[in-house]
Every structure is written in C-alpha cells, then in structure tokens.
Amino acid sequence: MRQIVLDTETTGLDPDAGHRLVEIAGVELANRQLTGSHLHLYVNPGRDSDPEALDVHGLTTDFLAKYPPVEDVIDQIIAYVEGAEVIIHNAPFDTKFLNAEFTRFGYKPFTEYCGKITDSLVYARELHPGKRNNLDALCDRYGISNEHRVLHGALLDSELLADVWLAMTRGQESLLMSFGGQAESQTDNNPALSFDASQLPVVYATADEVADHERYLEALSKSNKAPTLWQSL
C-alpha cells in the first residue's frame, strides 16, 4: 500500500463552527523512502482565520484570496491519496476538517477514499508514554533538524513528519533483517513478505542445560514450599 504523510492548516479549531481548510500538503513514501511526489495546495477559505490560527500558519486572508476554493481541488486531493495509507499527526483533527469539506460539496468523506488512516501521534504516545509528542518534540528526540520551522506550514510539516515516522518505525524492521543470513537490503523492500518463519533455526537445550533447569526449579520449589507453575504444568 502506498503511504502518504499528510498535514493541513485551517482557519480555526472546529469545522462545526464554520472553520475551513487553508492549506493541505502530503509527501509520498515508497519502500521507506521519499519518492519526490508531493501535493501542496493553498485554498481560499472565504473567511478570515482566527488570530490564534493566523499566529500558527501566517496565511493571511489577502494571501489566500488569489487561490481557488477547496471544492475546485477536491478531485486533485482524491487522486493523490486514493487507496493509500495516509499518515497524519493527530489524525482526528485533520480528518474532521477534510471530511467536512468533502461532504459539504457532495463527495464521500475524505477517509473513505483512503486505504487506511494512521495516527502518528497515537503511535508516538505508545512509544514514548508520558513524554511530549508534538512534532517539534519528536524532531528533537530523533535528531531531525527543524530550525527552519518558524511558522507551521503543511508541506514542511508533512516532510518533517515523514522523517519522524521513518525514525519511529525503524525498529519494525530490525527483527527481520538478518534471519537465515539474509542481507539487510533483501528485507528492506518488503520485510513482511521476505520474512519466512519456517527458516528460523530451532535450538534445543542440551542435557546439561535441562539438568540445570530442573535443579533450579527444585530450588525454587523448596524456597516457596510449593511446586512451581512450570512443574505443575
């Protein structure tokens, strides 16, 4: 499945309150590499941004006035993401806006065009519980330079998130890289397909190791004054 790392900017926090998209961008990953294919669109929301949102993205009403409304670019968005795994940081926020824009103009919700939605924030929180997991914090944690990120921008943020996502998920492949003497490059393209469990070596305990294990269990039984669960089974 193709992977698209996507980000949006908006006029405010809630489409139900009339807020709209102002920018959408995505970058494509294939075989854990950026392909160079990207989507980057500014759209005219037909309204001002809230001051707090404007402080975040800096896209003024005058700047956006020369761009098309979102309904003119929805087909372009669909063509880019259709069937792909779409990776978004705090996905419920972006997908709520995208779904609202799509359905407003008679399309199916954005999420129905995607093969899968993956929330990288949820993944980061599972990987780093109790820590800050916004994009800036993750860039610092993984040594990804974001010095040029003065304002939020959908294209820059999607590129940074792609680097963060590759760094966070690197361990997914490490268990599969060298089974059966295979070189790393052989499993990188599609580790799920390259991994063959039938080729794993089976290592049996020696007689001395079995005897040591039995003595250890006997010592545990005496210490606990009851048989170990292993012996009971």
List key phrases describing it:
2 domains, about 15% strand, 12 helices, about 230 residues, single chain, about 40% helix, alpha/beta, Nucleotidyltransferase, domain 5, five-stranded mixed beta sheet
Folded structure, characterized:
The chain is of the alpha/beta class. It has helices spanning 51-57, 61-64, 74-81, 91-104, 120-127, 135-141, 154-168, 171-174, 184-188, 191-194, 207-224, 229-232, and strands at residues 3-10, 21-30, 33-42, 85-88, 116-119. It is elongated. β2 (21-30) and β3 (33-42) form a beta hairpin.
Please sum up the structure shown:
With 233 residues, the chain is an alpha/beta fold.
The spatial strand order of the largest sheet comes to: 3-2-1-4-5
Largest sheet: 5 strands, mixed
Q: Average pLDDT, to the nearest integer?
A: 85
| Content of β-strand | 15-25%
CATH superfamily of the largest domain: Ribonuclease H-like superfamily/Ribonuclease H
User: Helix content range of the residues, please?
Assistant: 40-55%
| Backbone shape | elongated
Q: How many discrete structural domains?
A: 2
Strand segment count: 5
Give the class from helix and strand content and strand pairing.
alpha/beta
Number of helices, counting only DSSP H or I runs of 4 residues or more: 12
Low confidence ranges: 173-193
CATH top level class name of the largest domain? Alpha Beta
Compressed to H and E, one letter per element, the order equals: EEEHHHEHEHHHHHHHH
- What's the Cα radius of gyration? 25 Å
